[in-house]
Amino acid sequence: MEVSENFARARVFTELRVYREAFDHAMVIFELSRNFPACERYSLTDQFRRSARSVCSNIAEAWGKRKYPAAFASKLVDALSEAEETIVWIDFSRACGYMTEFDAKKLREAYRIIAAQLVVMIHSPERWRV
Q1: Rounded CA gap, 20 and 86, in Å?
Q2: Contact at 8 Å (CB) between 40 and 77?
Q3: Which element (helix H / strand E) includes 65?
Q4: Torsion angle (degrees, nearest 10) of CA 51, 53, 27, 106
Q5: Which residues are CB-neighbours of 4 under 8 A, at least 6 positions away?
Q6: Can you list the alpha helix ranges (DSSP code H) found in the chain?
Q7: Which domains does the chain have, with CATH numbers?
Q8: Gap between the Cα atoms of 35 and 45, Å rounded
């Protein structure tokens, strides 16, 4: 996995591959969820968008705490849990017929990859230390 190579070059969190992938897929979720029924606006749609965006925001917060490996890893664990929650919302969206199996499969795989990248970072917080 290229996560270990990425840390040496990243100067800001927006240069992290995992952040860019999480951001891009959060935007995909935003676009797909525009077509969800109005009755889901304040439940599934909001929760789905929130968890996807939280992956990105927790990565950004972790980056700001990288001087402290335990705090850095803790925020990455938060990002990981949000990525896992996002997979749940993908499954609900598919089960309710709000997205195609093709889109759901692509998103599930993307969030599994994001989660794997976060796990690598969590297990080596000292490599990211300022």
Answers
A1: 16
A2: no
A3: none
A4: -40
A5: 120, 124, 127
A6: 3-9, 17-33, 46-64, 69-95, 101-122
A7: 3-128 (1.20.1440.60)
A8: 10
Q: In tens digits, what is the pLDDT along the chain, a chain of 130 residues?
A: 445 445 457 889 999 999 999 999 999 999 999 999 999 999 999 999 999 999 999 999 999 999 999 999 999 999 999 999 999 999 999 999 999 999 999 999 999 999 999 999 999 998 888 7
Tokens (6 digits) for 101 = 């199996």
Q: What is the distance of C-alpha 74 from the center of its chain?
A: 15
pTM: 0.91
Q: Which residue is it, tokens 């599934």?
A: 44
* Residues 35/98, Cβ–Cβ less than 8 Å: yes
User: For residue 30, which phi and psi values (nearest 5 degrees)?
Assistant: -60, -50
